[in-house]
C-alpha cells in the first residue's frame, strides 16, 4: 500500500489531497485547499511550505506527486506559479518524500481518459473514482487527480516489472507521435499473429 500526497500548486490557492492506493483500488484519506493570504511573496510562499509540512506530518504520506508548470500566456503568472511549486516541492523534499511530476494533460488523461478535459470533468471523475459524496473544490480535485495519476503509474510499472507488458505498448512515451504509438501496437499484434 502506498500513500500519495498530490499537490496542485498555486500562489493564491494550493490544492492538496492524500490517497491510499493498493492494487487497483484508490481511496481518499484527506484533502483540502491552502488559501494563501495576500501579502509579500516570501510570506505567501512560506505559508505554502509551512502548511504542507504540517499536512505531511499529520497524514504521513510515503511519497508526493505534483503538477508540472506549464508556460502561460502571461510570463508573470508562470513565474509566480513556478515559485509556489518550488515552495511545495521543498516542503515535500524536506520531509523526505520523493516527488513524481506530471503534466496537466497526463493527469487529465489518467482520470478522465482525455488530456483535454476541463476542470468540471476532472472534478466529476475524481468524485466518482474516489466515491466522494460531493465534488471537491477545483484545486483540491486537481491535487487528488495528480495523486490518482501517480497511483496509476505505480500500477503500470508493477505490470512492466512482472513482464505483463512493455511500456512502449502500454502508453505512448512523452514526445512520441501517434504514428509511432500505432506502429508499436501493430508490431505487437503481428508478433501475436493477430490483425490490427
Outline the structure in words.
The structure is a single chain. This protein is α/β, with parallel strands linked by helices. Helix 4 packs across helix 5 (138-161). Strand 1 and strand 2 (13-22) form a beta hairpin. The protein is globular, with a radius of gyration of 18 Å. It has two domains: 2-165, Nucleotidyltransferase, domain 5, CATH 3.30.420; 167-196, no CATH class. The protein has a five-stranded mixed beta sheet. Residues 169-178 have low confidence and may be disordered. The protein is built from seven helices and five strands, in the order βββαβαβααααα. It is an enzyme of class 3 (hydrolase).
Shape: globular
pLDDT < 50 stretches:
169-178
**Main sheet: which strands, in order across?**
3-2-1-4-5
Can you tell me the CATH superfamily of the largest domain? Ribonuclease H-like superfamily/Ribonuclease H
CATH architecture of the largest domain: 2-Layer Sandwich
Q: Main beta sheet, described?
A: 5 strands, mixed
CATH topology of the largest domain: Nucleotidyltransferase, domain 5
The oligomeric status of these chains comes to single chain
- Proportion of helical residues: 40-55%
Instruction: Report the sheet-strand fraction.
Output: 15-25%
